[in-house]
Amino acid sequence: MSDPSGDGALGRPRPTLGLVDLLALIVGIVIGAGIFRTPALVAGMAGSEGMVVAVWVAGGLLSIVGALCYAELAATYPDVGGDYHFLGLAFGRRLAFLYGWARLAVIQTGSLALLAYVCGDYLQALLPLGAVGASLWAAQAVTVITAINWLGVREGAAVQRWLTLAEIGGLVLLIVAGFVADRVPAAPTVPREGSVGLMLVYVLLTYGGWSEAAYLSAEVRGSKRRIAWVLVAGLGIVTALYVLANLAFLNALGLAGVARSEAVAADVARAAFGPTGAALIAGAVAIAALTSANATAITGARTTCAIGREYPGLRWLGRWNERRDTPGNALLAQAAIALALVAAGAVARDGFALVVDYTAPVFWLFLLLTGLSLFVLRRRDPGIERPFRVPLYPVTPALFCATTAYLLWSSLAYTGWGALAGCVVLASGAVMLVFLKPAK
Predict the structure, then answer these.
(1) Does the pLDDT value for residue 59 go beyond 90?
(2) Where are the transmembrane segments (predicted)?
(3) What CATH number does domain 20-432 carry, 1.10.357.140, 1.20.1740.10, 1.20.1050.10, 3.40.640.10?
(4) For the chain, what is the mean pLDDT?
């Protein structure tokens, strides 16, 4: 990550993270609350159990294709800005700023607030704190996660390792429960009308987060080539767990039962363990949400820090604390926005689907542009050393771009006013560019 001042006053990130840290972050941020929510939505649109499994396998394979593209960019252009850095090199600083703004105002902070609320909802079920208990738990989750990562990257990475182990353990327990439970009878249900594209929107949302590894590329020790294999290994683990989880859900509840369930994981645990199952799954979901929230906080602050280093008007956001190896001010700004969203949610929360509507079009737009940046930078920098090259170029990145373009269209075609709100917030970043000028 560059320091436009040239005097090193902003500090620089150091390679302090090992491959285990990177793997824990990838697995931890991907396996979030989504796997406990989206299987019912997908099952309701699928015509058979085989289609359900096929869509989840396809989601894992498509994610690995995208990860290979990101691995080349991260290995060739390692920077704490991740996509922000790649988009700036390929398309210029103004587009990169819009992406950074989108992550700060829509993508990361929205995800952080949502995950904190999911965690808060389940902690409230276990340890109620009154009428606004879920909001209080959510605010505490954001505050504690930010404080840990403000103390230093080592502290945040250590917490991530333990949370990821607990998260995987909870999901494995749920998978076992699904396979040992006797099937719960359910009346046949007629699948809702939905395209494969809409199913993939929800499935790939649940696989989302693997691209966050790019934001730590400048902080990983050793050869950058290894980033590719960590990404593939992480997504391989996640794909196996997700497919097994859906097979377990189908075994316990059947296609109709999964489709009708409002809390599929809790229903499966209840079928296997009785009333105790509900408490067990509440803890597992809270841990999963907290794990993803911690990883989201780590990577989201890196983009905000990168913006501050490029724009003198936001210089305070770009300061990197070399003693703690963390972007402290960026973490605080991110937490402030996430807490504001939590406060707004305490007054009027519209649920999981609304957040998907709000974030999905903006997310898929910039993921598509990042895929296209690989083509641009291949042509512009033919002689640069590339520690890792995406296999089967240009077919692999073309497949990735085609998939993200289709999902961008699907997220606009099948969503409501929440998508419009996200696009309006993105457009407000263009207004800010009138007043903000990048450093020379």
Answers:
(1) yes
(2) 22-47, 53-75, 96-117, 129-150, 162-181, 196-216, 228-252, 272-293, 329-348, 360-378, 390-409, 415-436
(3) 1.20.1740.10
(4) 80
